[in-house]
């Protein structure tokens, strides 16, 4: 793509930082890179037009983080040894550091064949330079340990000194729940290595990833009461494995903060003299001994309390020391470390499109208080039908709620429409539309109406969980963590429906009415720390999509059922696409400015590839030629009847059937000059691109902008406002600019703004100022004027006429506002509004007049800086039409600022639409 002249060059430095985590945006090939917006809404798939102002174009891949200098995977693993008379230490057992001076191991590891107790523990053996060794000061063996039966095979070793916690030595966590829900676990073993790499005879630790729980109790003549966990796996390679000693940990690594913490589930039970390193067999389930473990710690005066072993608390304690999950962290964008309330404010803003559904107190226990909804426009919320179905007494939800850490915002409900095909208890057609009483300012998620082929990849699933377990904390101690509920997104992978139903069956879960026609399944095999994420029924499954040059979030489905946001156990969601026709009929009915659906296939099509005199077709069997609309006698009637009309290019050129072309239509030389703008300026635009390649600043001036000047009593010229050069002798500006003083302007300065070389501009006397004869200063009606020069200028590469946008039915969705305060020039990204949206948001007493358009200034999602800079009379709105490479884009004047209140960046501003006055301009240029 080529440069878009000076407008984009000045804007390229803008950056918008945020703490929002989402997958990199996808670019799906939808042909709407430079879209046009009609006056009124006529399609459900218009989010990239309506909310383009929120689109993100600051998404850049993160620089890969440097690898760790140390191994963090096994910082909790301890080697347990016996010091022999020769001084050699026999490292015959393994254990797990669970506190800074306690190691958990098998009771079998508290004695050897000669009933000698171990006396030493070593930690950090995977990192030789950072190993720590401690004496064992006390051994607490389970009082009911039965060596012959492997019952109660568990013990705690107290160290004589506390270890120094760092990246290479840190306590692990314990899974103390009575159930083991993980189908796959890691069994840590010690592998054979080359003698030259041995550290005092200690082998290297490794894990066997394929260990699986078989769902049965281990069966033996003396056990089977749930205290043992039976593991099945394949054989390890004998050449790489030593005998698996007693006490080796069975663990799972749980995800939090883009890192993983080890949670020990079991300890290898049985004699340390096992004959095979195959980790299959019995493990002591430590969840069955939670009370005993905490009791021993209390008796031994440990600083640990039962609350310290809650999974979330344990995970956060040493989160800064755990290994990160690089592939997960790197698929996120814009990871900016920020602090304090700024993070919370941005986080709350990011998730305002997810709302909680609120019921009246009278609904009591019958209310679904666990449900969420998803804003898909600023007046519409999608949710599950089951979430808003009336109670037996007829109670319905009354409002939706934005929830934040410090404040909540209530949005009253206007209406609720459930899908007519929904039946209670069934998941088919389980969808509903909530209309709000008034628009909300949140950035909505767009509805994805196309096919679901892109779902065979990763997607974000929205959930709610403890805030402290969510963000990337790096390697610094997180002293701002918390456990208050917070919305966030989790990356999950598409799971084929057949696989999904099989997985759900394992967890005794079935969903009546669910099918692959209306539903979709996702899962992430990485399990989460409990409390990290809970499913939000009615919450979105989404992905950022690149459309119209920016990334917007699109929702494909609504969460229906699952656990831990699809991590470990699959999550099921209701697809939106099968319900798009119904959604359109409900969402768009009665919306402000919506055009009624015509009985015919009425549509106005813009074909930018067609130019004047090209042969064309309207798509309804008529063949004609592209001509100016005033030459086509049938155009007004076709528009009135709602028939299809094709607009050629972006001007007032239409595809006209051959028989409807006006004969002997007069050719106005002014019209001809205006309509040939791109052709006339091509040479200069080519030169500017080549010139900028060699001298980037010399050609950064704005060649179409003219400053309007008034003589002062001191003999100087004061330039108060600006206009736009449209022919070699005419500048268009606002009437307010032209009448800014009681006397007329006398001179125009063309091409000066943003010029590095003062010799590259032109001063030209003004001959005539023509203000629209029906201009009303009170209302801003017909706020337009023409400034004509005493002579035609000779265009150069530094100053030449720009183009006029003459399409009366559409405007470009992406424009730039040029603000001039008499001294400096500043640019804003601006975005037009539907006329209906404008009327709804205008101040009381104000009316949208014929020939006006409303616009909003750009505010990228979660942008922190909110400008309140306003526009002044004569400020312009321009659009750069993308042309071929090796040439600057053609620039069009779309509108001139009229009026508005500029207290906030979300205030609606009004401009004079140039296309509405195209004929007036043509007829008044002399």
Write the layout of secondary structure elements.
Elements: H1 5-11, E1 36-38, H2 47-50, E2 77-83, E3 89-99, E4 102-105, E5 120-123, E6 132-141, E7 155-159, E8 173-174, E9 184-191, E10 204-213, E11 228-232, E12 249-256, E13 259-268, E14 281-285, H3 290-299, H4 311-317, H5 326-330, H6 341-350, E15 354-358, E16 372-377, E17 380-383, E18 399-403, E19 408-418, E20 432-436, E21 446-447, E22 458-466, E23 485-494, H7 497-506, E24 519-523, E25 534-535, E26 540-547, E27 550-561, E28 571-575, H8 580-587, E29 604-607, E30 615-617, E31 623-628, H9 635-641, E32 645-648, E33 653-657, H10 669-675, H11 677-694, E34 705-711, E35 717-727, E36 730-733, H12 735-738, E37 747-750, E38 762-771, E39 785-789, E40 803-804, E41 810-812, E42 815-820, E43 825-832, H13 835-841, E44 852-857, E45 876-881, E46 890-900, E47 909-913, H14 918-924
Parallel strand pairs: 8-13, 21-27, 29-32, 40-46
Antiparallel strand pairs: 1-41, 2-3, 2-5, 3-4, 4-7, 5-6, 6-7, 9-10, 9-12, 10-11, 11-14, 12-13, 13-14, 15-16, 15-18, 16-17, 17-20, 18-19, 19-20, 22-23, 22-25, 22-26, 23-24, 24-28, 26-27, 27-28, 30-31, 31-33, 32-33, 34-35, 34-37, 35-36, 36-39, 37-38, 38-39, 42-43, 42-45, 43-44, 44-47, 45-46, ...
Shape: elongated
Strand order of the largest sheet: 2-3-4-7-6-5
Biggest pleated-sheet summary: 6 strands, antiparallel, barrel
Poorly predicted tracts of residues: 1-20, 193-203, 219-225, 334-345, 595-601
Query: What is the distance, rounded to the nearest whole angstrom, between the alpha carbons of the first and last residues?
Result: 38 Å
Count of helix runs:
14
Alpha carbon gyration radius: 36 Å
Record field, number of beta strands = 47
* Helix share, percent: 10-25%
Strand content: 25-35%
* Secondary-structure content class: mainly beta
| Overall mean pLDDT | 83
Organism: Anopheles atroparvus
InterPro entries: CLIP_Serine_Protease (IPR051333), Peptidase_S1_PA (IPR009003), Peptidase_S1_PA_chymotrypsin (IPR043504), Trypsin_dom (IPR001254)
Family: Belongs to the peptidase S1 family. CLIP subfamily.
Pfam family, one: Trypsin
